[in-house]
Amino acid sequence: MNIAPFETEHFYAQYEFNTPYQLCNSDCETVTIGALLEMADMSLEQFGLQALGYTESQGNPHLRESIAAMYQHVQPEDVVVLGTPIEGIYLTARALLEPGDEVIVLSPAYDALINMFAHVVGPSNVKKWRFQPQPSAWTLELDDLRRLLSPRTKMVVVNFPHNPTGYLPTPQMQRALAEIVEAHNLWLFCDEMYFGLVHSGTPPIPSAADVSKRAIVLSGLSKTYGLPGLRSGWLIVQDKATRDRLMNWKFYTSICPPAPTEFLAVAALRVWRELRDKNIAQIEQNLALAEVFFQRWPALFTWRRPLAGSTALVGYHVPSVSAVAAQLAAEAGVLIHPATTLDSDDRHMRMGFGRAGFGKALRRFEAWLGR
Ligand SMILES: Cc1ncc(COP(=O)(O)O)c(C=O)c1O
Question: Which residue's C-alpha comes closest to atom 14 of ligand 1?
């Protein structure tokens, strides 16, 4: 069975480890194992004593308790610890959908959130709920979603805070979305990899898992907490029969989470608020630099300030952002991300604000623009 190329990951595989100045990463600034253990008041010696046998398939019970405690209405048995966050998208598509079901997805989006569902249900059964560009913001209309519903719709796939637009619904809109899903007996797959990265002035929202039992929530430590190399993620699945189906698929993909990752995830969850707050501060600082930059280049870029998350989708008025990105990487060692990989067009780029080197990279980009 065919699957579309995972364009975003092909792009980063090509550029991430050989382009020194990066303006587009979706993850936040990371820390070392030593620094993480120190923050969590744990020692490297304890880490050294971690046995490397198989682990419990659904996840270490202590880790599942710590994860459940981050939510209002989630129990440890609702948590499925994954082998890697991206695995959660695959497992959900496989366990909940059949060829011929219809799925509504956001567009633009992280491409796995479109392609994996298209792979299972068939590309013509994927309907796109599109963000609309307003002069200074991206918007999303529930009426557009209502128009896409059909008797074959099985699932709505969302991602809030959203990569790449930085969109976050209001609490009222989140509840209205849950009501639509429940009224039609659908599943809401909510990718919350950027959960808690909410910019000042934006009203926060709860996890979808605390709003509806029809929500399947994906989260993990890669983005908000800056630990993508840990490959730690989880699903919240409150329906037991669905969880059992999902676990069966998981036996075919990762069987159980890696023991060293679970050890370090327990450490990270002791200090998740500190990790998140450090990253929010970095994002706010980089957003301020970006705003000043865009004020200096009003004819070249359209800036729509993100409400949440670590990214923004920026209009770049050149004939091809892909061509400019390749030239910029080669000439100045600066990486921008053409939004074509995210089901957008070649006149937008994704920017990412979570990394400490952002300011330096932005200055290099500006020097290149003014060359
Ligand atoms: C919305 C979204 N979901 C899932 C993932 C996958 O996370 P990970 O790379 O940690 O598996 C990403 C990574 O960019 C993402 O942006």
Answer: 26
Residue 104 has pLDDT above 90, yes or no: yes
Q: How far apart are CA 287 and CA 308, in angstroms?
A: 11
Angle ∠(103,344,94) on CA atoms, nearest 5: 30
163 lines ligand 1 (CB under 6 A): yes
Q: What residues contact residue 213 under an 8 Å CB cut-off, 6+ apart?
A: 238, 239
pLDDT tens-place string over residues 18-28: 999 999 999 99
Distance 86 CA to ligand 1 centre (A): 6
Judge whether 7-32+273-369 and 46-270 match in fold.
Answer: no
Does domain 7-32+273-369 match CATH 3.90.1150.10? yes
Q: Is the CB of residue 84 below 6 angstroms from any atom belonging to ligand 1?
A: yes
What's the chain's average pLDDT? 98
- Ligand 1 touching residue 261 (CB < 6 A): no
Q: Compute the distance from residue 329 Cα to the ligand 1 centre, in Å.
A: 23
The full set of domain ranges for the chain reads: 7-32+273-369, 46-270
Quick one: which atom of ligand 1 is closest to the CA of 159?
A: 1
- Residue 85 and residue 233 in contact, taking contact as beta carbons nearer than 8 Å: yes
Q: What is the pLDDT of residue 342?
A: 98
For residue 116, how many C-alpha atoms fall within 13 Å in the half-sphere facing its CB?
Answer: 19
> Is the pLDDT reported for residue 340 higher than 80?
yes
User: 18-76: per-residue pLDDT in tens?
Assistant: 999 999 999 999 999 999 999 999 999 999 999 999 999 999 999 999 999 999 999 99
What is the CA(193)–ligand 1 centre distance, in A?
A: 7
**Is the model's pLDDT at 1 over the cut of 90?**
no
